[in-house]
Amino acid sequence: MPINAGPEYFAAEKKYSEAKTKKEKIIALEEMIRTAPKHKSSEKLLRNLKKRLAKFKKELNKEATARAKAKPKDIIRKEGAAQVCIIGLTNSGKSSLLQALTNANVKIADYPFTTKKPKVGMTDYAGVGIQLVEIPSTFTPDAIAIVRTCDLILILLDGTKDLERQLKELAKLLEKSGLGSKRVLIAANKSDEKKSENILHVSAKAGDGLLRLREEIWSRLGLIRVYTKSPDGLKSEKPLTLKSGSTVRDATKEVHKSLLKNFRFARVFNKTKYSGRKVGLEYVLSDLDVVEIHAG
Ligand SMILES: Nc1nc2c(ncn2[C@@H]2O[C@H](COP(=O)(O)OP(=O)(O)OP(=O)(O)O)[C@@H](O)[C@H]2O)c(=O)[nH]1
Ligand SMILES: [Mg+2]
Q: Whole-angstrom Cα distance, residue 158 to residue 115?
């Protein structure tokens, strides 16, 4: 106990001994330091108090950093066969398009930066799920990280505004983030107000051009849907999703590895005049082909 300490000091000391949290202890310690007698005989005491205070502050800081690290970021788990990120300047209609194409329920408004966090929706392409993500136009590092790993970027321009200027700005942003070589599809929205020439145009609001847009998205993804069928059975309900250029071998392997060992031939059904003909393992498949595998 310090010599000549006043009642303020003792009150602070009591507060300190009763403190339950680090924050309370820090406040009490600061008060003890402030009210402790400042003469030679209490130098050691002051040193000790300051040391204790520094220790508590350091611990509190550490805890806060750990909490911040544990907080979930804007991470979006990839789902379906592919992920498409919608980017554009604010108010171009990204949320409206996401809503028109998917099951997402998003806020749409005419003021800028309505969407602050990435928003997700799923859409179905003949049994194949494609995930669409609206990237907020604030382009935070977390959101850019999603764009980095997506399979296609859909650049959505506001068709009622200067297209060149928007494209330039977005290209600059992608370039700066090292995303200049990613696959993109460009579309101009709000065709109900203004139709732009020489560009894929849509209206998220009126629903114009959405079918075409979906087809363009699908064709840019470089994927094919292949149905399988057993010789006596019906075609599979859900297609396999394969990379373009995949062969009967790839499809057979997907169905079951053991089928490959006993493979004899396959028949491929489609809309061409060759539909139903016998093919081998190296036959290159097309989108929506139906493959009947003969094995054993
Ligand atoms: N005329 C017309 N207006 C549209 C269309 N699509 C969106 N809008 C309007 O444009 C405004 C912005 O739409 P949002 O879908 O919120 O745009 P956003 O790009 O998500 O905007 P932020 O999230 O704020 O960056 C709203 O007032 C919409 O009603 C369209 O096809 N035609
Ligand atoms: Mg939005």
A: 16
Task: Report the C-alpha dihedral over residues 183, 189, 191, 197, rounded to 10 degrees.
Answer: -40
Q: Diameter of the chain by CA atoms?
A: 106
Which atom, in ligand 1's list, is nearest to the CA of 113? 24
pLDDT at site 69: 73
Question: Which CATH fold topology does 82-220 show?
Answer: Rossmann fold (3.40.50)
pLDDT in tens, 128-156: 999 999 999 999 998 999 999 999 999 99
Is the CATH number of domain 7-70 1.10.3470? no
**Fold annotation for 223-295:** Ubiquitin-like (UB roll) (3.10.20)
Q: How far is the CA of 185 from the centre of ligand 2 (A)?
A: 19
CB of 118 closer than 6 angstroms to any ligand 1 atom = no
For the Cβ of 190 lying below 6 angstroms from any atom of ligand 1, the answer is yes
Q: Is 113 in the pocket of ligand 1 (CB under 6 A)?
A: yes
